[in-house]
Design goal:
Strand content of chain B: 15-25%
Structural class of chain B: alpha/beta
Order of helices and strands of chain A: EHEEHE
Number of domains of chain A: 1
Strand order of the largest sheet of chain A: 2-3-1-4
Chains: A alpha+beta, B alpha/beta, C mainly alpha
Largest sheet of chain B: 7 strands, mixed
Strand order of the largest sheet of chain B: 5-4-18-17-16-6-7
Shape of chain A: globular
Number of strands of chain B: 31
Oligomer: heterotrimer
Number of strands of chain A: 4
Radius of gyration of chain B: 25 Å
Strand content of chain A: 35-45%
Number of helices of chain B: 26
Chain lengths: 79, 775, 232
């Protein structure tokens, strides 16, 4: 099950929109920087198929300017 | 925070988040994730948390105060504050205990036949007002005075200045910040024409090298020091401790360089010599943005009553300056200072390296210095010569020791020569202030009267007959204390002291007023980085205790100034602040509106178009720059900063055969200033129960002094006995001793010298000659 | 002819070299023997302050280390190993390098930086004073479980956890002496740290900024009250 972390950069003045959009997605966990226009996004999915669906969802978000992956892990199925 | 291995997924998520946070921190220095920190703090069940700036030092940490049933019960660092990012020091964490000392003053006390008698607030205020009127009638306006402090909130200082300068018409307004920040002010004014640092704490996140000039930051500014250590862990910055004594800071630093007292002047000039001679000078910056000047030398030390000094600046050119520096080759400076040539070159190379961003930090070591203004100038010289100034990470930064030394004393201008905007000697500035104060301009005298040391001398002589002391403890903190204590006790002097606890200063009072402390009232503080922070009233003050602002307003009304002191009790802080803001209108000093201060952990002035200005004089960040160039030092008429030719001169009193040791005084992490608050906090008192004299182990061995033995210190002013401290918190250099000044039972200031910097009039507590004997 | 001249020149040079070298050594041999006195290098060192920062270079690693709950130590087992609070712990395992093993070749292999030791199924505690290598001067093995004669020695009460803060959530004071234990991180961070006293924020390395010594066990210190009373 892949767990990945990203830096998500919103379009100018769209940080709030982006936070809102991301927080509606079940597999996403976000942490917004308080004083800069960037937020940390952590995604957790069960398998590759779900990962692909999520990717499409993220691509559809309008307020998102850039998504830069920082790290990715794939943990074994048990646990 | 630790993660349990049993929940592997959670752990991996945590790792993913941490790596993202690290990446974000690398891309955006200074980035804050408040949510993350808040998760780690126990929420304190049902406590009500409200924000305030810390009561103690000038760093101005944001704290959250937990209250329950009308009592403050817990403190935590405010993770949203960009100053401390959720961390405090031991004083801050325990600060609220200082509200609840058993001997808290709750009722006004009036001295009658040598006895203090409880009375009502109304009667005490009536007495003060009538005594002031009487004194003015009998001895003139300049016989009444007020002595405040850098712990005054902004409204306290503002109404004090308005009452004394605007209404009564005397410039007898001073504050204890004269004893700690006056030199920083004159340093800024002479070099840049405008007070307070150009940079801000965020510089710490960008700098590569930190040079600490005589500044034991690990104990005195621990929260900022932790930000330095944080940067060292994250990106390997270098911390250089340049000092006269080995301290906790030296131990944490990458390099500790010791110099002989007073010789920092020579070393700083040698650094400039190296910069000029190794081609490290930023020529285009200097040509474009700097002038060269010299001033008078051999100024004296202000030891005699009525001493006066005015500098006569004279323009010079670069070649003159270069010739002057010939006296300060590293070899020559090494002979004066005892610093090795290698260390001087190492220091110079830090500033000279064009790829390194350098932050200089200093506090009392450089300010309480009989040539302190010069020393401030010299550090600015280094930064100006290399062009390392006014940009993120390149920052000469003057730290402060009191929560509102900047906010109240320097910005409101509660010093004899100052007005909220400008100085009393300037006609336009007087007119501007008089208009806002609603007083005739003739009320404000055009001549400054007494600076702090002179003010207490005037009290001794009888030129001043009435003094009101608020939020400070001069009978512990004045140098050459015995003279001023005896002077204050003389017949025909009337002293009012507003405080929260009995102190050696209340001992000399004729009237003692109980004050409301910190969060028992509403107010604002201004910290070292130009940040103004607001706090609301969270608690009821005990007994009849009243805020210093209200005390002053009440007396002003009784003296017949109802028109100027129109403030309503419920809204007076807001009204005072809004009136005060008018003095600073404009892009160079605009203060943030109160709503902004209430909604966030402070704002940096100049606050322009809804934004704090982080780096002044840099056109990229400062909207007040108007010369079309990358930098604009608009404090000076031609927009150029000044590089000063300032030589090395010895201290007022140096060790000799009879008094062979140097004596320096200072502070410890546990106690704040004279200890009247922190000593009433059991945790802090237990950790540091009394004063001591620190000796170098070799001196101690020679004199057969062991840790804890009684040692007698004798200077030309008197003697005192203290327990020895050998190999403990700090180690002074051989033939030097160090004594912290917090202990009112061991008043080291009885024997210190009242020499001061002739330009700033700030005393030099760090240097006098002393004899050391085992008793 | 030229060749011969060259050879003569070469030998002359060698001879001169020999004479010079011999003369120099002879002179050196005549000098009096002396022991160079060591000069104190850089400034003085305050051990109690310096060592606080000693393991701070590992602070970020400590922060990111997962906790192995199955192999944690507790404060009880920590104190069980000591005759009284602050006494040197005895060695609770057989000696891997035998009785003659010492310092860097034996104990410090595990106790300098810690780590999991398969043989003992535990994490090795980190010593706060790795520069002292004659370990068994103070730390002795437990070779017998019985006593020669019973003792009436009173084991004083150890400082408890969670009772050293003045306010809810305020940083606890240091309830123990720190001589030879100045290096906070060695016992308060990492997988071998007793779980009750493991620091949640090892990355804050200026420990004494918030945690000050509580001296009350050693000297009786009264709460500060002014000796001079106002209403005399």
């Amino acid at each position: 099950m892949p767990i990945k972390s990203y830096l998500a950069h919103p379009h100018e003045d769209k940080k709030e929109d982006l936070i809102e959009a991301l927080s509606t997605i079940e597999q996403c966990e976000i942490m917004a920087a308080q004083n800069k226009d960037v937020l940390i996004l952590i995604t957790e999915t069960e398998n590759k198929a779900e990962e692909a669906i999520l990717k499409e969802k993220l691509d559809a978000i309008k307020s998102l300017k850039l998504l830069a992956m920082v790290s990715g892990f794939n943990t074994p199925q048990n646990n | 925070m630790y993660t349990s291995m049993t929940n592997r997924r959670k752990f991996i998520k945590k790792m993913a988040m941490l790596s993202a946070m690290t990446a974000a921190a690398a891309m955006f220095p200074g980035i804050l994730f408040a949510d993350e920190q808040e998760r780690g703090i126990p929420d304190g069940s049902n406590l009500d948390w409200k924000k305030a700036p810390c009561r103690f030092c000038g760093v101005g940490c944001g704290v959250l105060i937990g209250t329950e049933n009308g009592k403050a019960v817990a403190v935590k660092g405010d993770p949203k504050s960009p100053v401390n990012k959720g961390l405090c020091c031991v004083k801050g964490y325990h600060s609220i205990i200082a509200l609840y000392g058993k001997d808290r003053l709750t009722k006004p006390l009036i001295k009658k036949n040598g006895q203090y008698v409880e009375t009502s607030m109304k009667e005490a205020l009536d007495l003060i007002a009538s005594k002031m009127k009487e004194t003015i009638k009998e001895y003139g306006k300049d016989a009444v005075s007020i002595y405040g402090s850098g712990q005054w909130t902004i409204p306290d200082g503002y109404v004090a200045s308005k009452l004394f300068k605007g209404c009564i018409g005397t410039n007898n307004v001073e504050a204890n910040a004269r004893l700690c920040m006056a030199t920083a002010v004159t340093g800024f004014l002479t070099s840049f024409g405008l007070d307070e640092p150009m940079g801000c704490y965020e510089d710490i996140d960008y700098a590569d090298t930190f040079v600490l000039w005589g500044n034991n930051m690990a104990e005195m500014h621990p929260v900022l020091f932790s930000r330095l250590l944080d940067q060292r862990l994250k990106k390997g910055v270098k911390i250089i401790d340049f000092a006269t004594r080995t301290t906790r800071t030296s131990m944490a630093a990458d390099r500790s360089i010791l110099f002989k007292p007073q010789t920092d002047l020579a070393v700083a000039n040698a650094i400039c010599y190296e910069i000029v001679h190794n081609g490290w000078m930023n020529r285009s910056f200097v040509e474009e943005h700097c002038n060269f000047s010299k001033g008078l030398t051999d100024m004296g030390y202000g030891l005699e009553d009525g001493y006066k000094f005015t500098d006569k600046p004279e323009k010079i050119n670069f070649e003159d300056y270069k010739t002057f520096l010939e006296d300060y080759t590293p070899e020559k400076a090494s002979k004066i200072s005892g610093v090795t040539v290698k260390d001087i070159k190492y220091l110079a190379a830090q500033f000279g390296d064009p790829n390194k961003k350098v932050m200089s930090l200093w506090c009392m070591g450089m300010n309480q210095h009989s040539r302190g203004t010069w020393m401030n100038n010299l550090v600015y010289n280094i930064h100006l010569l290399t062009g390392k100034i006014s940009e993120p990470g390149n920052s000469p930064f003057s730290l402060t020791g009191q929560p509102s030394a900047c906010g109240t004393v320097r910005e409101v201008g509660t010093l004899t020569h100052k007005l909220p905007h400008g100085v009393v000697t300037n006609k336009e500035h007087r007119e501007f202030a008089a208009k806002i104060w609603d007083v005739p301009v003739e009320n404000i005298p055009s001549k400054p009267t007494y600076h702090t040391v002179e003010m207490f001398r005037a009290l001794d002589r009888g030129d001043i007959r009435f003094m009101w002391i608020q939020v400070t403890n001069p009978m512990v903190s004045m140098p050459k204390l015995k003279r001023y204590r005896d002077g204050a006790k003389k017949e025909g002097r009337f002293i009012v002291v507003s405080d929260i606890y009995p102190t050696p200063t209340t001992d000399i009072a004729d009237v003692i007023l109980p004050s409301a402390m910190w969060i028992e009232r509403e107010g604002m503080y201004g910290n070292s980085e130009r940040r103004t922070q607001y706090f609301e009233q969270m608690l009821e003050p005990p007994g009849e205790a009243m805020s210093d602002t209200m005390q002053l307003i009440e007396v002003a009304k009784r003296m017949g100034y109802e028109k100027q002191f129109y403030y309503k009790e419920e809204t007076h802080i807001e009204e005072v602040y809004n009136e005060y803001r008018k003095h600073h209108v404009g892009k160079k000093h605009n203060m943030a509106p109160l709503e902004v201060l209430k909604s966030q952990p402070g704002a940096l002035w100049p606050y322009v178009d809804g934004k704090s200005t982080k780096w002044r004089f840099n056109s990229k960040y400062d909207p007040a720059c108007s010369n079309g160039k990358d930098f604009h030092f608009y404090g000076k008429p031609d927009g150029k900063a000044i590089i000063w030719q300032r030589p090395y001169e010895p201290a007022a009193e140096e060790p000799d055969a009879e008094y062979p040791f140097w004596l320096g005084t200072g502070r410890v992490v546990e106690h704040w200033h004279t200890g009247s608050m922190t000593r009433r906090i059991p945790v802090l008192h237990k950790a540091m129960p009394h004063g001591y004299v620190e000796l170098h182990p070799e001196d101690a061995k020679r004199m057969q002094i062991r840790n804890g033995d009684s040692v007698k210190l004798t200077t030309r002013r008197g003697e005192i006995i203290l327990p020895a401290s050998v190999d403990q918190r700090g180690i002074p250099a051989p033939m030097q001793v160090f004594v912290p000044f917090f202990d009112e039972n061991m008043l080291i200031n009885d024997i210190t010298l009242d020499s001061f910097c002739p330009i700033s009039k700030e005393p030099d507590y760090k240097k006098c000659a002393v004899k050391v004997e085992k008793v | 002819m030229k060749k011969r001249l060259g050879i003569i020149l070469l030998f002359t040079l060698l001879f001169i070299g020999f004479i010079v070298n011999w003369g120099y050594s002879y002179k050196k041999g005549l000098e009096e023997a002396y022991i160079p006195i060591k000069k104190e290098s850089s400034g003085p060192v305050i051990y109690s302050e310096k060592k606080v920062f000693e393991r701070s270079q590992f602070a970020l690693e400590y922060l990111n280390m997962p906790v192995d709950e199955a192999h944690q130590r507790s404060l009880n087992s920590y104190y069980d190993n000591r005759a009284y609070p602050g006494a040197p712990p005895s060695i609770p395992h057989f000696l891997l390098e035998g009785e003659r093993g010492m310092g860097g070749k034996a104990c410090l292999q595990c106790h300098q930086n810690g780590g999991f030791v398969e043989k003992f199924n535990a994490y090795a505690p980190v010593t706060p004073h790795p520069e002292m290598i004659n370990c068994k001067q103070c730390h002795v093995a437990q070779n017998s479980s019985s006593n020669f004669r019973e003792t009436t020695f009173y084991k004083s009460i150890t400082a408890s956890v969670g009772s050293n803060s003045a306010l809810p959530g305020s940083p606890p004071m240091i309830p123990h002496q720190i001589q030879m234990r100045e290096n906070c991180l060695s016992c308060h961070a990492g997988p071998a740290a007793p779980k009750e006293i493991r620091v949640t924020h090892p990355e804050r390395v200026n420990c004494l900024q918030c945690h000050v010594a509580d001296t009350r066990d050693f000297v009786e210190i009264q709460t500060f009250v002014r000796t001079k009373s106002l209403k005399k």
